[in-house]
Please model this.
Amino acid sequence: MLEGKEVYAFSPSTVAVVEGDTIHFTLINPEDDDHSFMLPDLVVPLPPQQTTRVSYVAKHAGIYPILCTIPKHLPMMSGQLIVLAGTSMAY
Ligand SMILES: [Cu+2]
Model:
């Protein structure tokens, strides 16, 4: 499956937040190749050797794939965003 592919990965590959949270991602691409960071309604190019900052509002609970849009970086270059349902503060 990985023959001829470059093996990249997101680290960490899983991010967990609570519904309604605004996530401030700092995305670092230490490589010499282009990558990207894709979530529902978001695609951020990650140029080589650069740090890219982006904010993302986790609107709805669920599990969402985090992907690099460069096909040969899949399936390894993927992760997931886990958005937990909002918790009631009533104890
Ligand atoms: Cu990539």
Notes: The longest strand covers residues 22-29. The beta strands are 14-18, 22-29, 35-39, 42-46, 50-57, 62-67, 78-84. The radius of gyration is 15 Å. The mean pLDDT is 92.
